[in-house]
């Protein structure tokens, strides 16, 4: 028995379901991570994997980026938590506002969940309306406001929502089809506080918006007096320094950031129009609070990470885009040459393969792909030293630290793993 198997057996007795987030489980048991560096992670048995999960997109710069590590070490010597304002929080917020001009004022929180939950409450509090429109398959974190027809682990485990989440919250939520403007129009009304969207859907695999779709979403929100929330938890600092709003040229009223913002430490942010953000307490009536918000260690990591992204970005983003396009093409060729019907979707440095002959443009088309085959592909990749998220409804991410050797290993692993799937 390898060490991961033994560790999992032990975890099952102490840790609920054996894992601290559902998507970390896969059959027969997940490998247990021991350390990580650059673009790789090592398991408890000392095996090295090229890491295409990248902490679900958080590790844009790779594991243990030197600048991030130095900033964290320096902060550890000055203290880990004050619960008093710091100059560093202001500096990070200023950097964010410069990269995301729509985020005129920023509030720092700890997770994507907190950011979208606060953004939705803020939209309701600011507009005095209650309905929220979301898109089928978009995932915005594990809270009641957003656990309606969500992607990610919710779709993976075949749950429509979550037991225990409030029916009343679900009743206040209308669901539109992604990439379908007419379906959005049907969901809209003058009772809608906010439209919330992942500008590139990254929780049903990767599903980019059709040309003009995000503009249409913005128009629909505006014409009904609703606020537009871009959930850029995944796309922020990932598609480019200015996220999806920078790439697609559509400005939301409220934005949420997380994952790649923090360089691997827990931090997220919401920000938006000045008048909207001023509705947050204590200036305004919408309550949002957290003991750990703006904690100095995460702020130090995020500030260092954002500075690194600003320094490296002009070369890093085009290179990641080229590398990811080349890899996606090889993955597609590998599937074609083995007679496997498939679609590969990509946006910037993230991609996903679906075993489906039809284009994947929304939740329904993603659900129609052969997920059992995907699970076999992910297992085949693991056995060849490449770790991809174990679910069809996540994305594979390239990072700045992947070497050319890592990338060729990944391409060869996909080719061999596809070969083993061939009918
Ligand atoms: C688009 C999106 N929003 C929100 C979240 C929730 O973030 P967190 O897991 O940090 O709570 C996620 C997490 O995967 C996400 O992908």
String of helices and strands: HEEEHHHEHEHHEHEHEHEEHHEEHHEEH
Q: What is the average of the pLDDT values?
A: 96
Q: Could you say which small molecules are bound to this protein?
A: pyridoxal-5'-phosphate
Number of helices: 15
Low-confidence parts lasting 5 or more residues at pLDDT below 50? none
* Beta content: 5-15%
Helix content: 40-55%
In total, the number of strands is: 14
Radius of gyration: 21 Å
The order of strands across the largest sheet is 4-10-9-8-7-5-6
The shape, in one word, is globular
The CATH fourth-level homologous superfamily of the largest domain: Type I PLP-dependent aspartate aminotransferase-like (Major domain)
């Amino acid at each position: 028995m390898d060490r991961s198997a033994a560790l999992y057996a032990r975890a099952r007795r102490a840790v609920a379901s054996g894992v601290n987030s559902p998507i970390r489980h896969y059959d027969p048991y997940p490998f247990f991570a021991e350390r990580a560096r650059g673009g790789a992670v090592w398991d408890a048995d000392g095996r090295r994997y090229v890491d295409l999960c990248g902490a679900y997109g958080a590790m844009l710069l790779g594991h243990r980026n030197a600048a991030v590590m130095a900033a964290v070490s320096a902060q550890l010597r000055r203290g880990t938590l004050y619960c008093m304002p710091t100059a560093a929080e202001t500096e990070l917020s200023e950097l964010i506002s410069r990269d995301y001009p729509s985020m005129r004022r920023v509030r720092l929180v700890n997770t994507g969940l907190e950011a979208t939950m606060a953004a939705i409450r803020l939209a309701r509090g600011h507009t005095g309306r209650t309905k929220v429109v979301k898109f089928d398959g978009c995932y915005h974190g594990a809270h009641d406001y957003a656990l309606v027809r969500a992607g990610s682990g919710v779709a993976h485990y075949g749950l429509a929502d979550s037991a225990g989440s409030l029916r009343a919250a679900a009743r206040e939520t209308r669901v539109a089809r992604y990439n379908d403007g007419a379906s959005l129009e049907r969901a809209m009304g003058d009772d809608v506080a906010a439209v919330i969207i992942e500008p590139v859907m990254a929780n049903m695999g990767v599903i980019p918006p059709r040309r003009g779709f995000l503009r249409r979403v913005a128009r629909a929100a505006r014409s009904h007096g609703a606020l537009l929330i871009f959930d850029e938890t995944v796309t922020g600092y990932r598609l480019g320094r200015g996220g999806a709003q920078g790439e697609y040229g559509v400005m939301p009223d409220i934005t949420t950031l997380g994952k790649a913002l923090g360089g691997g430490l827990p931090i997220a942010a919401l920000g938006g129009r000045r008048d909207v953000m001023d509705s947050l307490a204590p200036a305004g009536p919408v309550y949002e609070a957290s003991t750990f918000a703006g904690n100095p260690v995460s702020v130090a990591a995020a500030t260092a990470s954002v500075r690194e992204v600003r320094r490296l970005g002009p070369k890093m983003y085009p290179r990641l885009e080229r590398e990811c396009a080349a890899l996606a093409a090889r993955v597609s060729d590998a599937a074609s040459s083995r007679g496997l019907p498939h679609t590969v979707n990509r946006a910037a440095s993230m991609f996903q393969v679906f075993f489906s002959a039809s284009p994947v443009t929304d939740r329904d088309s993603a659900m129609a792909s052969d997920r059992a085959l995907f699970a076999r592909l992910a297992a085949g990749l693991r056995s060849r030293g490449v770790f991809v998220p174990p679910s069809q409804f996540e994305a594979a991410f390239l990072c700045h630290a992947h070497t050319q050797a890592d990338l060729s290993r990944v391409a060869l692993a996909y080719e061999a793993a596809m070969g083993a799937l061939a009918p």
